[in-house]
Amino acid sequence: MSSHPKPEPVGDVVGASVPKPDAREKVTGRAVYTDDLRVPGMLHGVLLGSPHAHARILSYDTSLAKALPGVRAVLTAEDLPPVDIGAVIKDQPLLARGKVRYVGEPVAAVAAVDPTTARRALELIRVQYEVLPPVFDAEAALRPDAPVLHAPRGPGHPNAASHIRLIEGEPDGAWAKCDVIIEDVYETPAQQHIYLEPCSTLAEVDPDTGRITLHTSTQTAFRVQAITAEALAVPMSRIRVLVPRVGGAFGGKVESTNQPITAALALATGAPVKMTFSRTDDMTMMRSRHGARIHMRTGATRDGRILARQVRIYFDTGAYADDGPFVANIGSYFARGPYRIPHVDVECWCVYTNKLRAGAFRGFGNPQIHFASEVQVDRLAEALGMDPIELRLRNALETGEKWLGGAPVESGTLHACLERAREVSDWQRRRQRAPPAPGKRRGIGMAAVAHVSGLLGSSATVRINEDGSVNVSTGAVDTGQGSDTALAQVAAGALGVPLSQLHFSRPDTDTSPYDWCTGGTRTTFTVGHVITQACEQVREQLFEHASAMLQRPVQQLELRPGGHVGVRGEPGTSVSFGAISGYALYVAGGPILASARWLFPAWQLDTQRTHVEGLTSMGNGFFVFAAQVAEVEVDELTGHVEVLEAWSVHDVGRVINPAAAEGQIQGGFVQGLGYALTEELLWKEGHLLNPTMGGYKVPGALDVPRAIHSVLLEHPAGPGPFGAKGVAEVSLVGVAPAICNAIRHATGANIRRIPATGERVLRELLARETQGGH
Amino acid sequence: MSSHPKPEPVGDVVGASVPKPDAREKVTGRAVYTDDLRVPGMLHGVLLGSPHAHARILSYDTSLAKALPGVRAVLTAEDLPPVDIGAVIKDQPLLARGKVRYVGEPVAAVAAVDPTTARRALELIRVQYEVLPPVFDAEAALRPDAPVLHAPRGPGHPNAASHIRLIEGEPDGAWAKCDVIIEDVYETPAQQHIYLEPCSTLAEVDPDTGRITLHTSTQTAFRVQAITAEALAVPMSRIRVLVPRVGGAFGGKVESTNQPITAALALATGAPVKMTFSRTDDMTMMRSRHGARIHMRTGATRDGRILARQVRIYFDTGAYADDGPFVANIGSYFARGPYRIPHVDVECWCVYTNKLRAGAFRGFGNPQIHFASEVQVDRLAEALGMDPIELRLRNALETGEKWLGGAPVESGTLHACLERAREVSDWQRRRQRAPPAPGKRRGIGMAAVAHVSGLLGSSATVRINEDGSVNVSTGAVDTGQGSDTALAQVAAGALGVPLSQLHFSRPDTDTSPYDWCTGGTRTTFTVGHVITQACEQVREQLFEHASAMLQRPVQQLELRPGGHVGVRGEPGTSVSFGAISGYALYVAGGPILASARWLFPAWQLDTQRTHVEGLTSMGNGFFVFAAQVAEVEVDELTGHVEVLEAWSVHDVGRVINPAAAEGQIQGGFVQGLGYALTEELLWKEGHLLNPTMGGYKVPGALDVPRAIHSVLLEHPAGPGPFGAKGVAEVSLVGVAPAICNAIRHATGANIRRIPATGERVLRELLARETQGGH
């Protein structure tokens, strides 16, 4: 990565807390989201969910529903191409085909003139089922006699969507050399994304050409295009995807949501169809974070060198694999943590069960494994009588060391994050602090955090207009986090133009360059990279023309703030972008524009060093680091945990927009807080018990600590723009272990299962009293 | 140009008469034109026209109009930035400022809740004028004592918007060597474009950012963006232009129409504003073809060598220069015609008068000069006793010879066109044919035609989707002529994919690559060129990946129809575009896309050879040739001319879509027929007498000959796609002289002024009888 030169930004726009231009329209309610769209003749789509967790479909009768006045189409799997979709395993039909595999699985789709008629039609659809035995637990699903959800795809248990093994060193022999060994089983919940905007799609079909236009809430216009094309068996060129304002996504809108089925309804009716999920439909039918059970054992020498770790991970992917095998990859890769542990044995299963599918969610397998690892490392410190930060500093990987599997750590800044976290949180003093009041206990805990930034491919086009203003076009979706603003700043900084002279376009699959997805902590990093590459090509074109116009060699030229090319050392000699563009358009060269494209080079497996089985992809990315600290107060009577204050220290490489980065970090912390303390999908016999905002508790304003201190360290490195690194996911990853370590620090309760509800904290406190302390 | 390799198209889509995909929606009325757009809160804009041809504005009183309920804004020049616009001379305010210079010139603009209220408000606007003496004739306007329209811009008459002189050889001395000399004064009318769709714009303004979105009927999204930005003094990046279906343009929508003033109304009101002209507003306020008066003298030796020509051209540009100086350039360049005349003296004025501005119109100065030249060459043939085709063949330029000014003729195919025209029209037989009936006379005439193809810059982006389908994006506007279809065929042929797997996007200035304009016979030629260049880059990317995938060197690879890369000589070994794209997106390289950009290199003046003064630009382009033949029947009693049959022979280089090319040629012939026989704006004391479809006669179905035979010759050459050349304008250029030569052949009447109305033909017949024949 040292091959990426790091030019300094021109002007002062990079590093400025530029407000989001869409802030006002969102605050005033003027912003247009997909559900705000209305077109003449528009129908409304709804889906019928399965009442059974596992059943064979024997027959459909849609005649009554079709006969209801106002109903325009009733579709079942029989009306759709026999195509299954899926990012890794092609196992998901748009509507259940032959079988249902979870309660709520879409079985039929209706389009009608209004939502009420559509819902009424659902009640008139008759489906005959033969109920099959279900399985709800991932470990249980791997037993030989477990009910099987999908046809076997090869050797191994048919319920294993993936099975990974990573071994380094000689783990079996290493335990004997350990002075301290901690072993526990950790459990993490199926968390829901709870984006403010439930999934919504408006599909329009050109009656002459059959071309489909989708307006949809998504993280990726281009994947929606690809998946819809695949599902409906039409070429991608016949589908256009446009993305209105998006009200959050967090991984839940990486894969398709209701786009393909809405498009199918539009094709069936020849009319525009809008489908907007109710919150309950969204929670029941879309996806969640993978619930996980992790058996972990870690051993260290007395002087604090972590020697060995064994990990067994069960990711519950629900009824369909979705991104599960990729999540399992990340979970496995990160099972060693950001530490140089010489002997490691990781085994990971991604398992089908008869529940809602699990998929991508901010952190992507990493919050689960970080919870186990960082709680266990903390207990190891306790057992060794060491300060938790000290133990982590002693084992943290540094620049040039290898990650599990052999990928290089190119910018190993965990030490810097840990030291800064210790300093800003006043760690030493707060670790010693006395209880605040009778019945209340205070504690402070922390977690070291690592993640990757920069997955997969992107491209960008930059154009200089005739008047010297600039248009930048990418495929990146701003899901509300502000990437449009940050990426505009990147381009403005690369070319030295003010933001008022630059337009950054939202994606249109017809005309925008491809971007994979707003996910994987990659938008600022990866899309920012291709933008700087395209700007560099544009700069070369500008310099070539300016050289002819000013009669100076290119080597003497420089970009100047305000959109000028000047002669180095001659402040009075320059030519504006507008003049250069006029020259290019009317004298020589043609329009000034450039497209850049990039795919982060894949990690190379070091098979000399690591025994690897079952990885579905090698992955790629740039390691990023953080340290997170939480101070909590625990009510001894109720077990209720209040997070008082928090510190989140991140190496952002180079800050593009401090306010936006801090917003990401604070949002990540709060979502992590929900994961740690309250959020959990609860099922009973396959039925989701809490598919409402009343039953599923996300943190509210009163649950947020009085201060979440974001600390942005700048260690520019890697291909991100001006050395910037991503911050989107990493800000969530360490929150749960930091909070649980604080709970243990406050009370001694060893929280191994989150969310750490009052009930669970109390149970641990009671267990501890029964066992007479740890 | 021989540096442009000519790869053959892959597959059979190039050369096929693919139907336009938008044909059905247009025929069924479903197509959405700008005026079909409606958005919530939309206001309607109208303009107040000047009642005087020339007057000073003393004061405005808009208070009554503003007080009318429903009126949201009343603007005059005092409310606008003090900016004048214009392609060559910045002489046009959006609303008259200080002075009015023609009857109908916009003086004020109103936006109101409905069109009726808006029109009523116009009547309430009081403007005080001081009437000034007007001038209506171009030659009169150049007299020293003529009223002056604009402030002088330098030496020379202030009413001369441009003055050009081109001299080659020794014209003064050459006349003595001529055996025959013909001299006449020719006059051509101000023809109107009469696009089916009058000018229309919907302007929307983002209330938070002030960003302007224009939906408009135009030939060029990017020039509209530039001109509106200039007029309103905002950066181009703050303006987005989208182009719904366009109902014809023919040059009338090259420069701005009502876009800037509609945007100004939207900015003033903060609401969306739509302005759609009535036909009368459009005819009164927009622009026409330049009326011209041409004094021409041509001399030849007895054996048919044309030796000398003197030309004096007066282009009447009306009150504003608009594209007039460029039109004058073309008129001057083409004054020698496509003939090797060694001694030439051309002088050309583009002159302000107090009439509607004149600007671009299919042919762009060339129909005027071709009318004079081709009628005069025909008379020369007559005087020499030679067949008119024979005389032209003897003098036609061939490949490698120089145009007036020194530009090279790179593909001199006029001989081929003339010979083919002689053959297909059965020329010899029809020249001899007897009169059909008493009082009717028949004749056949022809014209040699030359034009240029390929002005100015363009760019294109081509993307391979994940499934191997293709998206092509350019800035080119399809004005109804079918360029979207032809350009899609170019891309499909360059890559070997079926059209069903390819999408060609309409322009969006936010995300599309720049294109200058759909004009200058350039869209298939120039945009087609950049598309093939972008496809070539994409092909290189495809081959590079395929080489890695197939383990073969790039040199052994070939494109195969259907979207495959195969190994040459091994029919069984290939890889699909989809597989290659998957490899690029997920293994190495990144998204497959490429942008190409181009500016036709400017012609180099040969100042050794040609004395040149006053050219506002050297121009550029690729010479294209045609021969047009018309057979007419003239009613001796009424002078009415009926065109019976026509032949239009074109070197199209390489035919992309025969049906579309024939459509262009037939449309051009009919528009030329109107120019020849019926179309003319008529003024009386500055007032346009016939600004309606009733008063201004365009050819109807009954006026069209029973057959217009389009003959497409293929002589691939030059940078156009696969050697294609343009056909859009050239199909109109020779029609008027061919028809008038046929009239003379039929009756002996020497038509020197068009349109050749019955009245004018009769007058010439009477004059001829009086003079006792020619």
Automatic annotation (TrEMBL), chains A, B:
Residues 1-21 are annotated as: Disordered. Coiled coil: none annotated. Residues 28-133 form the Aldehyde oxidase/xanthine dehydrogenase a/b hammerhead domain. Pfam families: Ald_Xan_dh_C, MoCoBD_1, MoCoBD_2. GO terms for molecular function: iron ion binding; oxidoreductase activity. InterPro entries: Ald_Oxase/Xan_DH_a/b, Ald_Oxase/Xan_DH_a/b_sf, Ald_Oxase/xanthine_DH-like, AldOxase/xan_DH_MoCoBD1, AldOxase/xan_DH_MoCoBD2, AldOxase/xan_DH_Mopterin-bd_sf. Its cofactor is Mo-molybdopterin cytosine dinucleotide. PANTHER family: XANTHINE DEHYDROGENASE, XANTHINE DEHYDROGENASE SUBUNIT D-RELATED. This is Xanthine dehydrogenase family protein molybdopterin-binding subunit. It comes from Pyxidicoccus fallax. The lineage of its organism: Bacteria, Pseudomonadati, Myxococcota, Myxococcia, Myxococcales.
